[in-house]
Write a structure and sequence with these properties.
Immunoglobulin-like, elongated, five-stranded mixed sheet
Amino acid sequence: MGLYSEYFGAVGAAALDGQGQITLVNFGTQAFLVEEFPATVKFTIVLIVRDDENPKPVLVEDASLLLRLEILGPDGQPVAIGSSETPVWPKSDDRLSRQFQAILDYNLPAQEPGKYILRAEVRVAGSEDDVLKVERPLLILPQPAKS
């Protein structure tokens, strides 16, 4: 099987603790609410990719991972695109499979309310076989009217 997504989505904020574990704020948020449009919507994108190492490891030491992120607006057109490359680090514990964690703070210029789409693609540099693609909806809506 190879690479799989343990988690991918937008949260209010995220941080690493002293052991490298991710702490999430506003996990499970159904929508990000704003006063008016256009608006700058602040959130954190979290991506955790694991390697099931079956039939062999994909995330091997000295390899590089290529990450591409894209956010599509309600009309399906890209409103943000980014990419980066990162090395695969040595295992911290040989009993566990390797994993890759990305925590990206983001300020999205939202022109209109609606369903945005977060997309991520992770691949091992130089390989066309070891590719993981995931996507999740991101609702950005106006605050409810005050009564």
